[in-house]
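Sample pair:
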Amino acid sequence: MFSSLLFSELLLDDPLLEAIEALGFNEMSEVQLVAIPPALEGHDLIVNARTGSGKTLAYLVPMLQQILDNPQPATQALILAPTRELCRQIAKQCDLLTRFTEITYSPIIGGEDPKYQIEELRMKPDIIIATPGRLLEHVKREVISLDSVSFLVLDEADRMLDLGFAEDVIRLAKQCNEDCQHLLFSASYNPKKFAELTSQIMDEPEEVIIDSARQLNENIALQKILADNNEHKLALCEYLLKHENYTRTIVFANKKETVNRICGWLQSKDINTAFIHGDIEQEKRNQQMRKFRNGEVRIIVATDLASRGLDVSELDLIINYDVPRNGEDFLHRVGRTGRMENNGTAITLIDANEWNSMVGIENFLRARGEFRRIEGLEGNFRGPEKLKKSGKAYGAKRRKAGKKDSVKKKTRRKNRVRDRRNIGKRRKPATDE
């Protein structure tokens, strides 16, 4: 448990407080309680908290207050995020919080016209919200200088490392003001993994570990359904989406081709479905997401591209068509639901080849999903016959050859010259002289 604190108890300017109240926020969440006060005091912070805990507000509030305290005709704050979707989500939250102020912001992401972005950057917005790659392109072209930036946020920093953005992030951070304040937010913070990044850009940061990197949101009900093959999984998806009581759903798959296949199948069954993955143009992705958010489409099929940065209200069902590749990906997928004290359900479809992967994820998270059967759609796969202590299935053992089965290999004798010289010669017995 944590002590409650109201936003009104913080020394915030009225326009910012008014915007927070308009959003319906009065009492701070745990991550906001432990991050906002030290951030307002100017400390560098490393914050680990689960998805959906209110992290965006935890860094936007002190950032906006700093800009209100020191208005300047230059860019003062930079937020780096791993995906376009997350940047858009942050920009939306920033728009709501700055509605009663004159603070300006600009999202700079890939997949959009660089000319328009250049015009935006030349206007020197107070806040830049960007993916590292695209912003670095503009910096190299000297479209913008970051030397006036005094507040830098790394959101979903673990994902940026996974995507190979570490060097780009360090380069951008070193372009900022030497007295710049740094805030790093992650849902799976690992000190060793982050060591190179934090040592180069942060100054004696305070670590705030609210949730374990392996901790699941207690508001999410985990379920598992065994499946025989892809055809069986498609039938299960169809049933769940026609009979589950949900408002909005994301169906996750590991590959783009699988996403296309699932979406095509569902649409053939008269289930209105959208889809997003890396091969879809940004404009179409934005269009699909708008339909999903406003309720025109209740179901979206996606790769892990949508597992981070997607904050959609009333998203109460996640279906893992494929078992995720690791525990962190599972954590971020299911973290799209059950956000900010709301309840959600995450259902994972598991075939025989995925059993051990799912057990490994559950062991990593120290959590077990509840098995579920759908009447009339039970498969032949009911789980492995023999299990190890870890819960994983025994692999097929190689048959050891018995005495009767063993065949002695014929050894090939070396044909040495010294042996040929002695053929036919009789060895003389040794004599004592």
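The chain is about 35% helix and 15% strand.
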